[in-house]
Amino acid sequence: MARTAHRFLGTLAAITLIGIGLTTPAAQAGTSARTESRVVFPGEGLKVKLDHHPAALRKTSPGFRRYLDRELRELWGWDDHRAECRNAPVVFVQEYRSSGFAYLSEGVYAVKGHADCAGGGNWQFAVRRDGRWVSPRALGGQDVPSCQRLRRWNITRMTGAEQCYDGSGLVGYHPA
Hints:
single chain; alpha+beta; two-stranded antiparallel sheet; 4 helices; 26% helix
């Protein structure tokens, strides 16, 4: 009886998660591993600014490029969209996957002659949800991500998800 109840609750939880749109990006996109395109930008990644979208960014989807533009405009908003800080927001795209995952770092850095632009940065994963790229708050930070969090979001092993914190120390990340 308890076993049946446990199965029922597990099935109910899965149906609920699917019903509220918390399926994995790969499942939503209907993309298989065979057709996935993967683009890795070496070093610190591909540098993207509001007024500078490198040609290499064409290797990503139009939806992802729109996402980057939204991110940059949001970062610029930290400075109340002041003209002198327009070039302070920067996103470094390190890895992009057509299945709906990307790893990047972003920040707002001082512009020559305008050190008062907002400062700071972080890493984050972007995921495609319901056809739109987003950066869930739970998938970003300044420390090494927890293994549990990466697995909960079905993050594949990729740039930024090579190591994780398992509660006792850093370990190699292996998706469940």
